[in-house]
Design a protein that fits this description.
Layout (H helix, E strand, L loop, with lengths): L10 E4 L7 H15 L7 E6 L4 H15 L3 E7 L2 H10 L4 E5 L8 E7 L8 H11 L16 E3 L3 H10 L12 E5 L8 H8 L3 E5 L18 H10 L3 E5 L6 E4 L5 E2 L1 H14 L7 E5 L4 H9 L3 E5 L3 H11 L3 E3 L5 E3 L8 H15 L3 H4 L8 E7 L9 H14 L4 E6 L5 E7 L3 H18 L1
Parallel strand pairs: 2-3, 2-4, 3-6, 7-8, 7-9, 12-13
Antiparallel strand pairs: 1-5, 4-5, 9-10, 10-11, 14-15, 16-18, 17-18
Helix pairs in contact: 1-2, 1-4, 5-6, 13-14
Length: 447
């Protein structure tokens, strides 16, 4: 069933645009609150946000909606998405909410919801909440003493920092490491530098001066050039770039070269296999992960389980099939021994532990395999369904035939932006360029 408000990662759109308004946020608070009000205790919801100016507006509207249906609200302030998931469990909340548009520009925003166990909502639950949003909520309104209260939780930041630090293997600290940390002017600008410094690292921080408008702007995991330049400037051992809500991470080695999520997962998989921590006989990744990763894991006797794009689908497969390592090429790394969603800081700590234990440079540790030539293009469209057009369908079929069994072609509509992603990969880079170009041209003609 088509969803009206929710996409692949919650509700997202231009703040005060056609989709994401204070009115909708109010209704989401009322509808989600009504769905999760249960038992005779004081029901509570925790709400975190990143550093976008519109977060104040959405935070207030959500709080009004939740208190209206009888939930007590705990505002966490700027806080990474994985911290909200963890605190939902830690504070025994009935629901968790993160206000963020992740890696999108500052004028977008979004709403992500977490169950009491810290996991994102299922498609079915989101559909039920959508139905409530469009219904008459009068009967769900609390009266008198049952109306909820709002609080500011000043201790939440410390809780998350201590939690993250405890994920480092026993006996390992980060003393002697020079680390450049790029917080993307986003949600982790306070917690991540403190955690790394308290663990003993020498930390050089950039992207930690948010002004409400500069989140993800020329910094963070979508602009790794900034952290790469700083790594070379200060001669750091490693660069760590988080995104706006800190649920994903990109690494830069000591030479300033980018290490993507595929290489990252390969390092963790091999390290955890050697430590007899790896479950499921492999890892989970999406259809976008490089074929080189799959071949590398196969040589180690490990499998690669692929899912559709979206960390929620990676996590669903991990839980269903018993894996404890999964993620996306874009840097969402899920380590279910520690987290219920991608956590850029916790994932980075696991890599830093490997770095300390192996005493080798990142450029050596994080080059586990040679990538198969891969090309990704994004094609914007204004309306309609270009992927259902006969011309595009034929171009995709022709492209798949050209690549044959030794290559892959993935064409999909983004769940968060009005663009279509075209990804091709094969051992022949020229062939990949041709195939992707032909599909891209076909989409542009009808879009």
């Amino acid at each position: 069933m088509a969803r009206k408000y929710f996409g692949t990662d919650g509700i997202r759109g231009l703040a005060n645009g056609d989709k994401l308004t204070p009115e909708l946020a109010l209704k989401v608070g009322m509808a989600a609150g009504a769905k999760f009000v249960r038992g005779d205790h004081r029901n509570r919801v925790v709400i975190g946000k990143d550093t976008r100016r519109s977060g104040y507006m959405i935070e207030s509207a959500l709080g009004a909606g939740f208190t209206a249906v009888g939930m007590d609200v705990y505002f966490l302030g700027p806080m990474p998405t994985p911290a909200v998931a963890m605190l939902t469990r830690s504070l025994r909340a009935d629901l968790g909410v993160m206000i963020s548009a992740s890696h999108n520009p500052f004028d977008d925003n979004g709403i992500k919801l977490f169950r009491p166990d810290g996991y994102k909502l299922s498609d079915e639950l989101e559909l039920e909440i959508e139905a409530l949003i469009d219904s008459d909520m009068t009967r769900h309104l609390a009266k008198g003493r049952d109306i909820g209260r709002a609080h500011r939780d000043e201790e939440a930041r410390t809780r998350y920092i201590e939690y993250a630090k405890r994920t480092l293997p026993r006996g390992v600290d980060l003393s002697g490491l020079r680390v450049v940390l790029d917080c993307a002017n986003g949600a982790a600008y306070k917690v991540a530098p403190i955690a790394l410094w308290e663990l003993g690292a020498e930390v050089f921080t950039i992207g930690a001066e948010p002004d409400g408008f500069n989140i993800n702007h020329k910094v963070g995991s979508t602009a790794p050039e900034a952290v790469a330049a700083k790594v070379k400037e200060v001669r750091a051992d490693i660069g760590i770039a988080l995104d706006g809500d800190a649920d994903r991470v990109i690494i830069v080695d000591e030479k300033g070269h980018v290490v993507d999520g595929d290489q990252f997962m390969a390092v963790i998989a091999e390290s955890w296999m050697q430590r007899e921590m790896l479950l499921g006989g492999g890892i989970v990744a999406t259809i976008m992960s490089n074929l080189g990763l799959e071949r590398h894991l196969s040589k180690l006797g490990l499998t690669l389980e692929r899912t559709q794009v979206g960390d929620r689908y990676v996590l669903e497969a991990m839980r269903a099939k018993g894996f404890n390592v999964g993620g996306e090429q874009s840097g969402h790394i899920i380590l279910s021994d520690f987290t219920t969603t991608g956590d850029g800081l916790v994932a980075a700590l696991q890599l830093l532990a490997v770095l300390k234990q192996m005493e080798r440079p990142v450029s050596d540790i994080c080059r586990r395999f040679e990538k198969v030539p891969q090309l990704l293009r994004s094609v914007k469209f204004k309306s309609g369904k270009p992927l259902e057009h006969k011309q595009v369908i034929q171009a995709i079929a022709d492209g798949q035939a050209m690549l044959g069994s030794g290559g892959r072609l993935v064409v999909r509509a983004s769940g968060t932006e009005p663009v279509i992603r075209v990804m091709g990969e094969a051992d022949d880079a020229g062939l990949v360029e041709t195939v992707v170009g032909q599909v891209e041209a076909a989409i542009k003609q009808v879009a």
